[in-house]
Amino acid sequence: MQERTERLKPGDRIQFYKQQCVAGDPSGLMEATILNIDPKADHILTLDDTFTNLEPHHQVKRIQRYERGKLVNNDGGQFRPISTYMLKKEGNPNASKEVRAAEKARVDEIIKRNKDQMVMKMKKDGFCPEDMLR
């Protein structure tokens, strides 16, 4: 068991491999920012990728640490299980909801923009049943 000396904090950037991939596979390597930490919750880390839920035994490496309002490179980081880091309950407990709301707003804007383009093309062609479009 490794000694708990390195601490994870909200704002830190971590690197990990997707759960569906083999460790070492470059296509499965991911990076994320920690938004919330709750060591006693089902999902210890809340990341900026809201659909990624890492288990306590999942190996992560801190690549940048949030220090005095800035991200600083974390040289010498190594992959270790999340449970071996020092974890303290901190961050925004509503971070997951806020990330999902922002993603929904982004997708709604894309849908609206594409719908408007489609309506413009249909009007240009002379046939546009706008009342039938949602």
Notable characteristics:
23% helix, seven-stranded antiparallel β-sheet, single chain, 2 domains, alpha+beta
Q: Kindly estimate the percentage of residues that lie in beta strands according to DSSP.
A: 25-35%
Report on the biggest sheet: 7 strands, antiparallel
**Count of separate structural domains:** 2
Overall pLDDT score: 87
Give the topology string: H per helix, E per strand: EEEEEEEH
Secondary structure tally, helices: 1
The value of Rg in angstroms is 21 Å
Main structural class? alpha+beta
How many strand elements? 7
Distance between the first and last residues' Cα:
57 Å
- What's the overall geometry? elongated
What would your notes on this structure say?
The chain has 134 residues and is of the alpha+beta class. It has 2 domains: 80 residues; 30 residues. Helices cover 23% and strands 25% of the residues. The chain contains 1 helix and 7 strands; from the N terminus they run E-E-E-E-E-E-E-H. Strands 1, 2, 3, 4, 5, 6 and 7 form a 7-stranded antiparallel sheet that branches. The mean pLDDT is 87.
